[in-house]
Specification:
By secondary structure, the protein is α/β, with parallel strands linked by helices. The chain has helices at about 15-30, 55-70, 90-95, 115-120, 135-150, 170-180, 210-215, 240-245, 250, 275-280, 285-305; strands at about 45-50, 70-75, 105-110, 125-130, 155-160, 185, 205, 220, 260. The strands form two sheets. It has a five-stranded parallel β-sheet. A four-stranded parallel β-sheet has the order 2-1-3-4. Strand 5, helix 6 and strand 6 form a beta-alpha-beta unit.
């Protein structure tokens, strides 16, 4: 595998790397289904979770992944840290580095922050989302979720709908899924579509309308408006967005018979997606959350390079 110390961008991975992550995650998912959900794999390792932005799913799944691998976790509450006293990101990392952690899990509002951190620490760095740039572990869990149902991604049509410009999930999903051969159709308000960044990817298209994007789609990934990144300033109102860019049962009926509906969360019911769709068997949102733990266990395992038994620690 070409991956070395860090997981910063999905573009740093090869197809082989992605498949290695998924196969490893499948093994760890089996452990999560057992009565004793714990292995000694990362016993003695220390992982610091440093989240500069709010998070429920990503942070929780990383914490659970660390506990199931028997790692020691340290969760830094930014609101109660020296950051509030003016400490820079560099100084925060250098101080924590002195405590000899084995890995940092970083979420930061500035694009490029995990890459910067990776250059000043010997510990492994996992990007848990940086600004509008990338969210590689979300893409890996999305790929795992799709592969469980569809097996081969290379023949699929994937529609990504919503605030594409400000979505790090969209960016990583476009890079990852297109690398595996999927045809990507993106659609959203014109003001929230990317001007550059995807022109060199031949299997990525900007759809002219919602119907074109979802027609015969095998996978539909719905995105919320990134209001914390000024997304609301790019649309007239939430009501107008709901009227023109919400996935409804009628639009869903245009997709392929076995369509999968994904969403990275948090979901704004009846804004970007009808609440009735979330309760259908076509929606795989909660399966994504379940797979998130297995994927993040695989990431920690593969980055830290620990080769130990996967048998339960009893």
């Amino acid at each position: 595998m070409s991956l070395k110390k860090d997981l910063i961008s999905i573009k740093d991975l090869t197809k082989s790397d992605i498949y290695s992550f998924i196969e490893t995650a499948k093994e760890f998912k089996k452990i999560s289904l057992k009565d004793i959900k714990k292995v000694p794999t990362l016993r003695g390792k220390t992982v610091i979770n440093l989240f500069y932005e709010p998070s429920t799913r990503t942070r929780s799944s990383f914490e659970i992944a660390q506990k199931r691998l028997s790692a020691d976790s340290l969760n830094i509450a930014i609101s109660q840290s020296s950051v509030t006293k003016g400490e820079t990101l560099k100084d925060t990392i250098l101080n924590l580095e002195s405590m000899k952690p084995d890995a940092f899990v970083i979420r930061h509002h500035e694009s490029g922050a995990p890459y910067f951190i990776s250059k000043i620490t010997k510990a492994s760095v996992i990007n848990a989302g940086d600004g509008i740039n990338e969210h590689p572990t979300q893409t890996l869990l999305d790929i795992m979720t799709v592969m469980e149902e569809k097996k081969d991604i290379s023949s699929l049509k994937v529609a990504i709908i919503g605030d594409i410009s400000h979505s790090r999930v969209a960016r990583s999903d476009i890079f990852g899924l297109s690398m595996l051969g999927a045809d990507i159709y993106i659609y959203g308000p014109y003001s929230l579509l990317p001007v550059t960044g995807f022109k060199d990817i031949p299997n990525v298209r900007i759809a002219k309308g919602f119907k074109e994007a979802v027609k015969n789609a095998d996978v539909i990934i719905m995105l919320r408006i990134q209001k914390e990144r000024a997304g609301y300033h790019f649309i007239p109102s939430i009501e107008e967005y709901r009227n023109f860019f919400k996935l409804t049962p009628e639009l869903l009926s245009l997709a392929s018979k076995g369509v999968m509906v994904l969403h990275p969360g948090p979901v704004n019911r009846d804004v970007e997606i009808s609440g009735s769709i979330i309760n259908r068997d076509k929606t795989f949102i909660f399966k994504q959350v379940e797979n998130g733990i297995a994927v993040r266990m695989a990431c920690l395992y593969m980055l830290l390079g620990v080769q130990k038994s996967l048998e339960p620690d009893i």
